[in-house]
Amino acid sequence: MASTTAIPDLDRLRPAGTKRSSKRDLIVNVFLKQEGHLSADDLVVLTKRADERISRATVYRTLQWMEEAGIARKVDFGEGRFRFEHSYRHPRHFHLICKTCKRSYEFLSSDIESLVEEVAAARAFTANQSVVQIYGTCESCRTGRAPEEPSNSELLFARDALRIAIATERSGMEFYGRGVKLVKDPRAREIFRKLATEEVHHLKTLEARYDDLLKQDPLLESRPTFLFFKGAANGLFAAGTDQLRRDGVDDLEAYRIGIRCERGSHRFFKRYGERFEDSEGKQVFLEFAEEEREHLELLIREYRALVKRQRSPGHKALVAAKRPQAGRAKARSRTASR
Ligand SMILES: [Zn+2]
Ligand SMILES: [Zn+2]
Predict the structure, then answer these.
(1) pLDDT digits (tens, 9 = 90+) for 193-234
(2) For residue 283, with 0-12 CB atoms within 10 Å meaning exposed, 13-18 middle and 19 or more buried, which class applies?
């Protein structure tokens, strides 16, 4: 298949003091044109096809160099020999390994990663790396259907990260749209409307990016899920929108729910984005985290300003005139925390 993998800048990656070699460049290019997990012998065969004068020893040396330079990553599928996969701009991932045909399939799961973090934290263990390999029989071996074409995990990661970001923006848009109708304070209504409008804008940007991504691979939409994100599929604001529907949600409570959603969304994208190596998906996540942080800060500022306004003597007099039992509402607003 045609590869869309970005070719790293070899000059930049080359360790100091080593010379550029055309043989090495050829081997690196042969390696990067392949998707999936190659053994050293696979790479020898492919390299010899391109230039039969290149020796086995040179290929082995180059593989070791690629590993040090961050272009290749060693993986062990328990076959008694290592395999190598791209590591440049290729997010870390887990593997499904078919015992029958020896093919391997890549995936990622935020739930597995948070479980690993939870266990490590509980045992005061600093985890550097976790390897998840699931052995069994692939669909193709089980059904006789043609095997799925190896796909570019970088693109799949970007596709899935964008899908989650889009779902989140959609749920955010719905959340603020509902908020606009609910809040009484004119300033709060203005803020919710502003945020709803921004989510619409973000959504359009993300959708345009998603369409651009699809142009890189016409089959991208139909390829299997790479990134599994339990709980994020409906958007991180979906629970907040449900809470807004409850009885007795006042303006301050609406702000508090919004703050919780934005904070959850910000943390989620930031923590996740940072864990990945350079890739389009990482960039999407970090940009998104930054935008959510700005929303979070705005909501916190506005929440505090509203508390202040509601405590002012003018406001109290106004509420007291409108509603004889304002004392209870005031007591409730005092328990508000950020
Ligand atoms: Zn198989
Ligand atoms: Zn892999």
Answers:
(1) 999 999 898 889 889 989 988 998 889 999 999 988 876 666
(2) middle
The DSSP output letter for 71 is S
Instruction: Tell me the C-alpha distance between 334 and 332, whole Å.
Output: 5
Helix-helix angle 56-68:22-33, to 10 degrees: 70
Nearest ligand by distance to the CA of 107? 2
How far, in Å, is the centroid of ligand 1 from the Cα of 249? 54
Closest CA to 193 of 203, 179, 172, 205: 179
Ligand 1: distance of its center to the CA of 138 in Å?
A: 4
| Residues 91-126: b if buried by 16+ CB within 10 A, e if exposed | bbbbbbbbeeeebbbbbbbbeebeeeeeeeeeeeee
Can you give the pTM of this predicted structure? 0.75
Q: How far is the CA of 72 from the centre of ligand 1 (A)?
A: 24
* Six token digits for residue 241: 């929108």
97 Cα–ligand 1 center, Å: 8
Here the tokens at position 287 are 């940009």
3-state secondary structure (DSSP) of residue 88: coil
**pLDDT tens across 102-132, in order?**
888 999 888 888 889 899 999 999 988 888 9
The Cα 228–Cα 256 span in angstroms is: 29
Pairing verdict, β 38-39 and 82-86: antiparallel
